[in-house]
Write a sequence for this structure.
C-alpha cells in the first residue's frame, strides 16, 4: 500500500480535471490527444486500483480539505461507485483510442484542443459524481459533465447537431434544476448536504410533505437526465448527430451515471425514512421501464439510420436497468448494476464498429451498407458481437445480465410471468433490429454506395480498440465473476438501507 | 417593514417574470431579465445574504445582460412565433408550481431560529471559523475552505462554459479582413463618462477580490466586476483596441491559469502531507496556512472568471464583423 493509496478517490477526479486546462494551454492537437489519452489511461488505472481497495477494505472515505463531514465534503467509494468508475474510465479510454483515427474527419484541427479539454471535463465530471458522498457536490459535477457533454455533441459535423444539443441542453437543465430543488428541500428539513447524514437526520423528520415532494423532484429530474421513457426525447438525435467517438463515450456511460444517482439517492436517503416508499418507487418506475423496453425497441426496428437505431436501443436498454432496480430485491438490483456494466460494453462495441464504418461511408444509413461485410469483415464482425451481446446471447456479457434479470423477475410471484414475457419480447425485438443491419451488411447486394465513398477496411489503429471491446464482451460473458461480485455487493449495500 | 418590502419586491419580480415570458421582442426580454436579477439581488440583500446579492447583481444583472445582448446582435431581434405544445407546457408548469407550494406548507418559517438549517452545521461553522480559519466573513470560510471542493467545481463549471463558447464560436482571422470596430469613440459624452468610471470599477473589483475575507465578496464577484470594466472599455474604444490591451493569448492563459492555480493549491496540500485542498499544511501555523490557501484560491477564481467572461464577450464581439 503506497502513500498515495488513500488519495485515490480524489485523484480519480483531479487527474482528468487538471489536465483539461493544461490541454488548452498547450494548444496543439496531437499533444492534446496524447495528454487526454494519458490522463484517461491514468484514470482507468486508478479505477482498477480502487476496485481492488474496495474489495479489501469496503467503503473508502476521503475528507476533502481534511474537514470531517457534514461540515466539509467527503468522498466515499464503494462497490457501486467502483463498478461504474470502471465503466466511465474504460469507455473514455476506448473512445479516445478510436478518436486518434476518427476525430479529424469530424472536428476541425484548430478546434481539437478545446474538444479534448471538454472530453476530459466530461470524464472528470462523471467520475466526480461517482466518488462523492455529498448531495450538492453531485450537482456541481453534474453541471461540469452536462456542460461538457453539450460541447462534445455540438462538435458534430452535421448542422443538425445544434438543434439536437439545444434540446438536450434545455431538458438537461430542467432535470438538473429539479434535482437541485429536491436537494434544497431536503436541506431545508435537515440542515445537511451529506447523504449519510441526511438519512440519519431525516429519521426525526419522518414523513414530512417537503421530503415527499423532494423525492418526487429528484426522481423526475434524474429520470429526465437518464432518458427514462417517456423523458427520452432528447436522446436519439443527440446520439445521432454527435461525433462518432463522442457517441461511443456518452452512450456507454452518461445516462447510467444519472441512473446511479437516482438509485443511490433514493435508497441511501429516502427508503429508510418514507413509509411505503419502496411501493412508490416500484410503481412509478416499473411501468415506465416496461413501456420503454417495448416501445423503444419497436421504434428501433423501423429506424433506418444506424446511429439512431442504436440510440433507440439505448432507450430500451435503460428500461432493463430501471426494471431491475424497480423490483427492489438483491437479485433485481444486482441485475440492474450488471446491466449498466454489460450494456456499456455491448453498446460501446456497436458504436465503435459504426465509427469504423463511418470512415468509409459518409451517411450511416441502412441502404448504404449493402454487402459491406465483404470489404470490411473485421468491422462488421465486431458489430455482430456487439449486437449478440445487446440481444443477450449466451457467451456474451449481455447474457449474464439478462439471466440475472429473468431470475429476479421470477422471484416476483404474480408479476413473474408478465415481466419475463416483457424481457423475452424485448430480446426478440433486439434480434430483429440487429438482424436487419447484419442481413443488409452480409447478404444484400452492394447497390446503395454513395458516390465518392471508397470502401476499405478501417485502419488497424481503430480496429484495435474496437476489438478490445469485442473481447471484453466475450471475456465478461464467459468469466463474469468481477462485475457479478461488485454488483452483488452494491445490491447488498442498497438493500441494507431498506426500511 | 422588512416583510412589506419583501412582499413588494417579490410581487415586482412576479410581474417582471410574466413580462419576460410575454415579451416578443428579445431586447425587451433581455432588459427585463436584468431588472429581474436586480430585484432578486435586492431580495437576497433583504434576507441578509450579502455575498449572494453581490454576485447576483454583478453576474445576473450586469454580465449576463451584456452577454445576452452580444448574442442577440448575432441573431434576430424578434422571437419566432411558436404554437403547439403550449397546453402541455402549461400543465407541466402548473403541476410543478403546485408541488412546490405543497412543499412549503410544512416548511419552517423564514428566520425561524429553530429551523433545521440553523441547528445542525451552522452553529459549528459560527463557533469554529474564528478558531480554525480566523476570517470575519464566515461565508468566505465555508465557500473557500470547508466546502472548497464545491467551489473548485464551480470554477471548472465557468471554465467549461468558456471552453464551450470558444469551441463553438471560434473564429480564425484568416477568413476575411474586416474593418476595425470603432466603438463609441466618436460619442464624446459616453466616452468621457465611460473613461471616468472604468478606473473606479477596476478599483472596486480589486477591493472585492482582496477584501472577501472581511466583507461580502471574493473571486467570483471581483472577476465579474473587472471583466465588466474591460468590457466597458471595449464598448467605448472598440473591440480591436481592447484586444491589443488584453491579447487573446493572455485571455487563454487566464482562463486556464486560474483553474490551474486553484487545483494546484489542492495538489500542494496533498504533497505537503494533507488531503486535497487542505490549506492548513501550507504553512507551519495552520491558521496562517488557511489564510494563504484562501488568498491563492480566491485569486485563481478571480483570474479564471475574468478570463472566461472576457473570452465569451470577445468571441461574440469579433464574430459580428463577418
Amino acid at each position: 500500500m503506497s502513500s498515495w493509496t488513500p488519495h485515490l478517490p480524489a485523484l480519480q477526479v483531479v487527474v482528468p480535471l487538471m489536465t483539461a486546462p493544461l490541454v488548452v494551454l498547450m494548444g496543439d492537437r496531437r499533444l492534446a490527444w496524447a495528454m487526454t489519452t494519458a490522463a484517461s489511461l491514468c484514470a482507468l488505472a486508478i479505477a482498477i486500483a480502487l476496485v481492488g481497495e474496495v474489495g479489501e477494505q469496503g467503503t473508502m472515505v476521503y475528507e476533502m480539505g481534511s474537514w470531517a463531514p457534514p461540515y466539509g465534503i467527503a468522498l466515499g467509494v464503494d462497490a457501486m461507485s467502483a463498478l461504474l468508475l470502471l465503466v466511465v474510465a474504460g469507455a473514455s479510454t476506448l473512445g479516445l483510442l478510436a478518436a486518434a483515427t476518427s476525430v479529424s474527419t469530424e472536428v476541425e484541427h484548430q478546434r481539437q484542443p478545446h474538444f479534448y479539454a471538454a472530453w476530459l471535463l466530461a470524464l472528470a465530471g462523471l467520475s466526480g459524481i461517482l466518488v462523492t458522498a455529498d448531495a450538492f457536490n453531485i450537482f456541481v459535477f453534474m453541471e461540469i459533465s452536462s456542460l461538457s457533454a453539450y460541447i462534445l455533441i455540438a462538435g458534430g459535423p452535421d448542422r443538425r447537431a445544434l438543434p439536437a444539443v439545444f434540446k438536450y441542453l434545455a431538458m438537461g437543465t430542467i432535470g438538473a434544476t429539479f434535482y437541485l430543488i429536491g436537494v434544497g428541500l431536503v436541506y431545508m428539513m435537515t440542515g445537511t448536504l451529506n447523504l449519510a447524514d441526511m438519512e440519519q437526520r431525516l429519521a426525526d423528520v419522518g414523513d414530512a410533505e417537503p421530503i415527499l415532494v423532494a423525492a418526487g423532484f429528484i426522481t423526475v429530474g434524474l429520470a429526465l437526465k437518464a432518458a427514462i421513457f417517456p423523458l427520452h426525447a432528447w436522446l436519439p438525435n443527440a446520439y445521432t448527430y454527435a461525433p462518432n467517438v463522442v457517441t461511443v463515450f456518452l452512450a456507454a456511460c452518461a445516462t447510467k451515471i444519472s441512473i446511479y444517482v437516482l438509485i443511490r439517492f433514493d435508497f441511501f436517503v429516502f427508503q429508510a425514512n418514507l413509509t411505503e416508499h419502496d411501493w412508490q418507487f416500484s410503481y412509478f418506475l416499473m411501468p415506465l421501464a416496461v413501456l420503454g423496453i417495448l416501445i423503444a425497441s419497436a421504434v428501433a426496428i423501423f429506424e433506418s439510420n444506424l446511429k439512431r437505431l442504436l440510440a433507440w436501443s439505448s432507450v430500451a436498454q435503460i428500461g432493463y436497468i430501471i426494471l431491475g432496480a424497480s423490483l427492489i430485491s438483491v437479485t433485481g438490483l444486482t441485475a440492474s448494476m450488471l446491466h449498466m456494466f454489460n450494456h456499456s460494453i455491448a453498446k460501446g462495441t456497436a458504436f465503435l464498429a459504426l465509427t469504423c464504418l463511418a470512415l468509409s461511408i459518409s451517411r450511416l444509413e441502412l441502404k448504404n451498407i449493402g454487402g459491406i461485410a465483404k470489404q470490411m469483415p473485421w468491422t462488421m464482425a465486431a458489430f455482430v458481437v456487439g449486437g449478440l451481446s445487446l440481444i443477450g446471447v449466451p457467451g456474451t456479457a449481455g447474457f449474464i445480465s439478462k439471466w440475472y434479470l429473468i431470475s429476479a423477475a421470477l422471484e416476483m410471484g404474480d408479476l413473474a410471468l408478465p415481466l419475463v414475457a416483457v424481457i423475452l419480447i424485448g430480446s426478440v425485438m433486439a434480434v430483429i433490429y440487429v438482424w436487419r443491419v447484419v442481413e443488409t451488411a452480409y447478404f444484400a447486394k452492394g447497390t446503395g454506395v454513395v458516390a465518392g465513398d471508397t470502401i476499405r477496411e478501417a485502419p488497424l489503429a481503430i480496429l484495435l480498440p474496437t476489438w478490445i471491446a469485442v473481447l471484453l464482451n466475450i471475456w465478461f460473458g464467459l468469466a463474469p465473476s468481477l462485475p457479478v461480485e461488485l454488483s452483488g455487493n452494491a445490491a447488498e449495500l442498497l438493500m441494507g438501507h431498506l426500511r | 417593514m422588512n416583510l412589506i418590502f419583501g412582499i413588494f419586491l417579490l410581487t415586482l419580480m412576479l410581474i417582471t417574470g410574466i413580462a419576460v415570458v410575454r415579451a416578443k421582442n428579445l431586447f425587451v426580454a433581455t432588459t427585463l431579465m436584468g431588472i429581474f436579477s436586480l430585484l432578486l439581488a435586492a431580495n437576497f440583500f433583504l434576507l441578509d445574504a450579502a455575498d449572494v446579492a453581490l454576485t447576483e447583481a454583478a453576474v445576473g444583472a450586469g454580465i449576463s445582460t451584456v452577454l445576452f445582448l452580444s448574442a442577440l446582435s448575432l441573431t434576430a431581434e424578434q422571437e419566432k412565433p411558436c404554437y403547439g405544445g403550449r397546453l402541455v407546457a402549461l400543465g407541466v408548469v402548473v403541476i410543478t408550481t403546485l408541488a412546490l407550494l405543497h412543499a412549503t406548507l410544512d416548511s419552517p418559517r423564514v428566520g425561524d431560529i429553530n429551523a433545521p438549517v440553523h441547528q445542525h452545521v451552522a452553529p459549528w461553522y459560527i463557533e469554529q471559523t474564528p478558531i480554525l480559519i480566523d476570517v470575519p466573513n464566515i461565508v468566505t470560510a465555508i465557500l473557500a475552505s470547508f466546502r472548497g471542493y464545491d467551489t473548485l467545481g464551480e470554477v471548472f463549471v465557468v471554465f467549461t462554459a468558456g471552453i464551450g463558447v470558444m469551441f463553438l464560436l471560434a473564429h480564425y482571422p484568416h477568413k476575411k479582413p474586416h474593418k476595425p470596430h470603432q466603438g463609441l469613440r466618436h460619442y464624446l459624452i459616453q466616452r468621457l463618462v465611460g473613461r471616468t468610471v472604468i478606473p473606479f470599477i477596476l478599483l472596486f473589483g480589486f477591493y472585492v477580490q482582496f477584501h472577501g475575507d472581511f466583507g461580502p465578496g471574493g473571486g467570483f464577484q471581483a472577476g465579474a466586476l473587472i471583466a465588466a470594466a474591460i468590457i466597458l472599455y471595449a464598448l467605448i474604444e472598440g473591440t480591436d483596441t481592447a484586444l491589443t490591451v488584453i491579447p487573446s493569448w493572455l485571455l487563454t492563459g487566464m482562463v486556464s491559469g486560474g483553474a490551474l492555480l486553484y487545483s494546484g493549491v489542492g495538489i500542494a496540500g496533498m504533497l505537503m502531507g494533507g488531503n486535497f485542498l487542505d490549506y492548513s499544511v501550507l504553512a507551519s501555523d495552520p491558521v496562517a496556512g488557511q489564510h494563504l490557501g484562501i488568498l491563492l484560491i480566491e485569486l485563481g477564481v478571480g483570474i479564471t472568471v475574468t478570463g472566461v467572461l472576457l473570452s465569451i464577450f470577445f468571441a461574440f464581439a469579433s464574430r459580428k464583423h463577418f
Chain B touches chain A through 60 residues (CB under 8 Å).
